[in-house]
Amino acid sequence: MDAGWAWVVCAASFFIQFIVFGTIQSFGIIFVSLLNEFQASEYETVVVVPRFPLACVGSMAYGMLFFIGPVTTALTDHVGCRKMVMIGTCLIILGLVTSSFATSLSVLYVTFGVLWSIGASFAYFPAILVLRFYFFGNLSFANGLSMTGAGIGTIVLNSVINYVNQRYGWRTGMRMLGGVSAVMFVCGSIYLPPPQEFLNMMDWTSYEKISRFIDPRPWKMKPFIVFSACMCCICFGYFVPYVHLVRYAETLSVPLSEGALLLGYISISAIFGKLLCGRVAD
Length: 282
What we know:
Elements (H helix, E strand, L loop, with lengths): L4 H20 L2 H12 L3 H5 L9 H12 L1 H11 L1 H19 L5 H25 L9 H30 L1 H12 L1 H8 L5 H6 L4 H6 L10 H17 L1 H12 L4 H26 L1
């Protein structure tokens, strides 16, 4: 643990978060293209109207990714990290490719808001959970290091998506992201099964296996309740800039290419924050 192959696994987790969050946190650029494609007014994107709000395509995808997290982590304990990442990658590619052929917002809700987000959840959470099998003393730092993939992925894919969208259109951009996502098959194959001695330490009884799906004990701990409440409040505003910042900059006569850089600046601060917090936590 904490050496050799463990850091290869950490790199694999880095690239999974690079792709997953690089995709969803660049949605602001895709959002501008969708506005032009479907000719939806900004009023319709923020107010609930009879037809689907456009901005909620990305918001739903981001929310679903974490909403099904408890189910994903429980499945990961039974199926294994490698298989979950493989299944998730298939769903991500399917969601992105089918989204590129969408002719209505309702289709995007299913293909990107549901299908892609389930796949992203299946890939992301195992990428975090697998580190506990390979790290002990440096676990927090390894988590922080792998999570910088989200920030770096946003910077890189943000620029790539912006270029592809302007030159070839958002549909080609979606297909390109589907091809990039195939890299996660390689990442998933790196996750070797945990050592048998580790599994013996986790030899749960039947009751404990069931309680891992619905475990009320954390909700009896005040620190956990406070932490969960704080995270809920943070999430109300966290994703808003990633959806609306580029479009808002455009309304202020800022060129699309420069508006897209704003998402990169946010990601740069996130990178340093995650590395610092990871080292301090250890």
